[in-house]
Specification:
alpha/beta; two-stranded antiparallel sheet; 9 helices; 14 strands; 17% strand; globular
C-alpha cells in the first residue's frame, strides 16, 4: 500500500455519499462494434480534443487520491488501444494513496499482455463477454474473437488478476436465453459474471425499446435456483452480487433502472479529454484540463473537484427518458 502524503480527507457530495472510486477513461476509441454501444463502429467526433497525456492523467489521479479515492478503473472505449497503456497503468498504480487499479477491456489483447499488465500494477479485471456462443458473440461485437477473449481470461487467471469479472449486457431476444449456460460457466471458476441492463443513451432509443430487459428477471431466476445476495464489499461498483453454496463463482446484476440504484453511488468519472462527469447520465462534463498542466496546480485542482462534487444530483433521470449528455457508453468510459 502506498503512503498518502498530502491527503486531505474523504470526498462527499451534498447527499452524504462518499466517493472512493474513479473511472478514468483513457480513450473513447473502440475497435469493436457492439450493437448496444457502437453498432456502426467508432467515428471520431468533429472537434474532438486530444486524449489526456500520461502526465495529465497522473496529475488528475493524484488530486483524487488526496481526496480519499483509492480505486481507479482504466476504461475506454477500449483502453488498450492506447500505445502507452502499460506506462499509464504503471504510473497510476504508483500514485500515493491508490490501492487498487482495475481495468475494463474487450479482451482482444489480453492473452498476449495479461502478465505484462499485472506486473504494471493492474490487479482487477473486467472483460466484456456478451455471449458464450461464438456466432452470437460475433453478431453482437462485430468480431469472431470469443476464443481469443476466453483465452485472455485464462491468461489473466494465470497472471494472478483478482477479482476477474465478465460483463454481459442483457438483451431481450439476443442473449437472455443464455442465463443457464452462463451460470454453469462460473460455477466451477472463481469468476464473477455480471449481467448489465441495456441503458438508454442519446443514440440508441429504438434499440433500448426493443432490447431492454429488467435485471429483476435475472434476480428472480437466481433466487429460484438457490442463489442468495452477498454483502457489498468496500469500494465495490454498482453490481449487486449473488452467491451459491455449490458455486465458486458469483453472479452480479447491474440494474440502473432499479429503485434506489443511485443511493450507493461511490464513483466519479473523468473522460479521456479531461472532463469530470459527476454522473454517467449527467448533462455534460466540466473541463478540468486547464488545471492538469503543471504539478503546482494540485491545490487548485483539488478545490475544484470538491466544489463540483458537492453539486452532484441525487439520482439519474433515466426513468424520465432523460439520458443527459451521454451519446453512447464509450464516450465517457461507461
Amino acid at each position: 500500500m502506498n503512503a498518502e502524503p498530502g491527503r486531505i480527507g474523504a470526498l462527499h457530495d451534498g447527499h452524504g455519499r462518499r466517493f472512493e472510486y474513479l473511472r478514468l477513461s483513457l480513450t473513447d476509441v473502440c475497435n469493436f462494434r457492439c450493437t448496444y454501444c457502437l453498432p456502426n463502429g467508432y467515428r471520431k467526433p468533429a472537434g474532438k480534443a486530444p486524449e489526456l497525456s500520461p502526465d495529465e492523467l497522473v496529475r488528475a489521479v493524484s488530486a483524487f487520491a488526496r481526496l480519499g479515492l483509492w480505486k481507479v478503473r482504466l476504461t475506454g472505449g477500449e483502453p488498450t488501444v492506447r500505445s502507452e497503456f502499460t506506462e499509464i497503468a504503471r504510473r497510476v498504480a504508483a500514485v500515493p494513496g491508490i490501492r487498487r487499479v482495475a481495468m475494463t477491456t474487450n479482451g482482444y489483447r489480453l492473452a498476449a499482455h495479461a502478465a505484462e499488465w499485472r506486473a504494471a500494477g493492474v490487479s482487477a479485471l473486467n472483460v466484456s463477454v456478451d455471449s458464450l456462443d461464438p456466432a452470437r458473440f460475433a453478431a453482437i461485437t462485430g468480431h469472431d474473437r470469443l476464443g481469443e477473449v476466453l483465452a485472455g481470461v485464462e491468461a489473466a487467471r494465470a497472471a494472478g488478476f483478482a477479482p476477474i469479472k465478465l460483463n454481459a449486457v442483457l438483451m431481450r431476444g439476443v442473449n437472455d436465453d443464455e442465463l443457464a449456460a452462463m451460470i454453469a460457466f462460473v460455477r466451477a471458476l472463481d469468476l464473477s459474471l455480471r449481467f448489465i441492463e441495456v441503458m438508454r443513451t442519446n443514440d440508441n432509443p429504438a434499440f433500448f425499446a426493443e432490447r431492454h430487459l429488467a435485471g429483476q428477471t435475472v434476480i428472480a431466476a437466481l433466487e429460484r435456483l438457490g442463489w442468495t445476495r452477498l454483502p457489498r464489499a468496500p469500494g465495490a461498483g454498482p453490481a449487486v452480487e449473488y452467491g451459491h453454496p455449490q458455486a465458486q463463482g458469483r453472479i452480479g446484476i447491474i440494474a440502473p433502472y432499479a429503485q434506489d440504484f443511485c443511493a450507493t453511488c461511490n464513483r466519479l468519472r473523468l473522460s479521456s479529454d479531461g472532463r469530470l462527469h459527476l454522473c454517467l447520465f449527467g448533462d455534460g462534463g466540466i473541463d478540468l484540463r486547464p488545471l492538469l498542466q503543471h504539478d503546482d496546480q494540485q491545490d487548485e485542482l483539488v478545490a475544484r473537484i470538491v466544489a463540483l462534487t458537492a453539486t452532484k444530483a441525487p439520482a439519474h433521470r433515466l426513468h424520465q427518458g432523460n439520458s443527459g449528455g451521454t451519446p453512447h457508453l464509450a464516450s465517457i468510459g461507461g
